[in-house]
Amino acid sequence: MSIQPLSRPLIAGTFMLLMTVGVSFYSSDAAAYDPEQGCSDLGFSLSIAPSVSTTNGKIEVAGVPLGTEIAKLVPGNISGMCDTGYSTNPSIGDIPPGLGFLVYKTHNCSAGRAFDADGNISMFCLAPLNTNAVLQFDGNNGPAAVQPVVSATNAILLNKKRPGETIIPMTSLADFSKFYSTWGNYDWNLKEESLRGPVTPPTLTLVYTPTCSAEVNDVAFGTLSAGEIKNNRVRPGRATVNVSCNDIVAKYSITFSSPKGVLGDKTAILSDNTTIGYQLSWPNGAVQENIKLDQPYERNAPSEAFSIPVDILPVPLPSAGAIKSGRADSVVTINLKFS
């Protein structure tokens, strides 16, 4: 018996599962905000409100530590209503947006701070959008009145001090020609808004004029003999000018003179004794460098408080003949100028 296997035709099939996927992309320039988002009758002005002392409207930064708030950027004359669109179309998000904001774009944004062109001042900036808020509004319940931001985002901090007067246009820190409504810190819902009139950015003026005080001790030589003075056997007396400033000064100049008069060659001041004068010198170890009178000496200030030592020595005046006995009182005038 022979058994023949049954043959079945083999069917080769190819199955394809077709799937349609719809994906929408917003370009960086496309408007993705809700149709109801926006502002109406919007207008405001900007001004600077100093937080520290001023001189003729200029902010004095001497004595102010770096990183201190020196002013605020303050909106005024505010009008208008803004809306995130949430109450009209809640599908834009599962979570209510909370506050809406009117923002502007900053320059030189780094680590959450925007700086002016020269790095003198800084303000808050929100990366990566490089924006800062100036007004806020309720974003959950339809159109709402705008008001100043309640946070410290518009605080202006001191970043650098420069001697003299520094004028800083706020346009070097941010672009105040365009303003945007937004919520939730998303780049895709920044909507440029129209204002009733242009906003004129203010200018900030810093003044750095440290104030200093100085005091100096008296020098008394007691009773000296004519021979000690004539033969240069008198030990110099030390006068120390102690200077204290409320901030670091870059340079100073010091000039010595006397209401009693000075010798013609500017090497000694005169005294009540017509035969005795006083020679001033810088103490430089074993070497004494004589000080020329009525001549300014320029120096760098090492710190906010420093001392200037001066040695004073009684000397016989030339062509005065024998030294006369009696008192030889005198006065040294010290003129300090800071820059």
Automatic annotation (TrEMBL):
Gene Ontology CC: pilus
Annotated source species: Pseudenterobacter timonensis
GO terms (BP aspect): cell adhesion
Name by which UniProt lists this protein: Fimbrial protein
Superkingdom field: Bacteria
InterPro entries: Adhesion_dom_fimbrial_sf (IPR036937), Adhesion_dom_sf (IPR008966)
